[in-house]
Amino acid sequence: MKVVVIGGTGLIGSQVVARLGEHGHEAVPASPNTGVNTMTGEGLAEVLRGASVVVDVSNSPSFADDTVKEFFRVSTSNLLKAEAEAGIGHHVALSVVGTDRLQGSGYFQAKQAQEDMIKDSGIAYSIVHATQFFEFAKSLADSATEGDTVTVAPIKIQPIFSGDVAAAVGRTAVGAPLNGTVEVAGPDVFRLEDFIRKGLAVREDTRTVVTDPNGLYWGAALQESDLLPGSDARIAETHFDEWAAGQR
């Protein structure tokens, strides 16, 4: 089948394209780099022609509240409109475990709004909720750094390898629409501070990581288990230490 991958040149999207191609599908990466812009609508009608499935793994270029909200509102609206006109039978979106619990953050408000638009679109859909990627430990640290100190809340996290996320998205794309949400997570649960320390160590980054009960996660206050998936989540195979060994 022809599958159009919005954000198909990024970290997750490029892997989704590769995996689908390996399984004999026509996977088409769509991003501004390939002449498709969901913010303006440029190239959407052309790239969707003949497609059966659209996978949206795109992300906002900025996490500033106003920018990210505008990105997901406009991008998702344009994409769903073009899909309806093209007769797309399955819309797959990548989102985040705990989105509904993280509404103190502008980013997660935007992701929730995106999910709501998809559910209300009338197009058959599947939403994949993933935990935080191994590769994003540095970004998490950067968002909570002052000077040389990273301050995070004393909470738990169950991060996942980006390749396992891509595999889950690809499997979902070629399956029947769920008209619901599936969660995917890595096999190991960490304290957030330990995960960030490990992630920084991979990069030989010597910042100090400390905890603070008042620490925020992308602007949201959290309970200890807010970032963890439910008991029915699909658990990926790649362990963090295995991935980290391959980065050195």
From TrEMBL:
<dbReference type="InterPro" id="IPR036291">
    <property type="entry name" value="NAD(P)-bd_dom_sf"/>
</dbReference>
<dbReference type="InterPro" id="IPR051207">
    <property type="entry name" value="ComplexI_NDUFA9_subunit"/>
</dbReference>
<protein>
    <submittedName>
        <fullName>SDR family oxidoreductase</fullName>
    </submittedName>
</protein>
